[in-house]
């Protein structure tokens, strides 16, 4: 991740995070980006759902949110698996906060008014990896659907 920051910022000095929050923000944003990319159609409404979600969750300005998405796209492109994004969530977030992450992933998937089977499969996999039970996964989907309408 440090390589990504150095590449983006063009700074030769190492970037050292004193808190876990930037790692969490990157992890959550990367998962949202992966949901957006699942149907191979980069949709403006899905991008907007990510912007709104991370601005609200992490109190980011529009500029900071755009930069966060840019970093998340790069991290997602370089990732070999989901573990690097899901492990920090388990360590940092409560069970209810992890359920809310699943709800946010559903909001991204629903933003274009169509849930692609690959989007649903990814959200299901993330839910399993972060310890969200199936009934909670379904409840999060229902809540997202009610919010999206």
What does this structure look like?
By secondary structure, this protein is mainly alpha-helical. The protein has one domain (2-11, 18-148): TerB-like (Orthogonal Bundle). The chain is built from 8 helices and no strands. It has helices at 2-9, 21-37, 44-58, 62-78, 83-92, 95-110, 117-129, 134-148. It is globular and about 35 Å long. The protein starts with a helix and ends with a helix. The model is unreliable at 1-20 (pLDDT under 50).
Question: In brief, what are we looking at here?
Answer:
This protein has 149 residues and is mainly alpha-helical. It has helices at residues 2-9, 21-37, 44-58, 62-78, 83-92, 95-110, 117-129, 134-148.
Keywords:
149 residues, mainly alpha, 8 helices, 0% strand, globular, disordered N terminus
Write the layout of secondary structure elements.
Blueprint: H1 2-9, H2 21-37, H3 44-58, H4 62-78, H5 83-92, H6 95-110, H7 117-129, H8 134-148
């Amino acid at each position: 991740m440090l390589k990504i920051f150095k590449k983006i910022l063009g700074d030769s000095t190492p970037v050292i995070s004193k808190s876990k929050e930037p790692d969490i923000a990157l992890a959550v944003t990367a998962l949202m980006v992966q949901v957006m990319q699942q149907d191979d159609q980069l949709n403006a409404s899905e991008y907007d759902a990510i912007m709104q979600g991370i601005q609200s969750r992490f109190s980011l300005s529009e500029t900071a949110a755009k930069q966060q998405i840019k970093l998340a796209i790069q991290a997602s492109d370089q990732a070999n698996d989901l573990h690097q994004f899901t492990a920090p969530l388990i360590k940092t977030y409560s069970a209810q906060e992890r359920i809310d992450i699943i709800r946010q992933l559903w909001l991204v998937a629903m933003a274009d008014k169509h849930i692609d089977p690959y989007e649903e499969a990814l959200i299901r996999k993330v839910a399993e990896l972060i310890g969200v039970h199936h009934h909670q996964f379904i409840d999060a989907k229902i809540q997202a659907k009610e919010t999206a309408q």
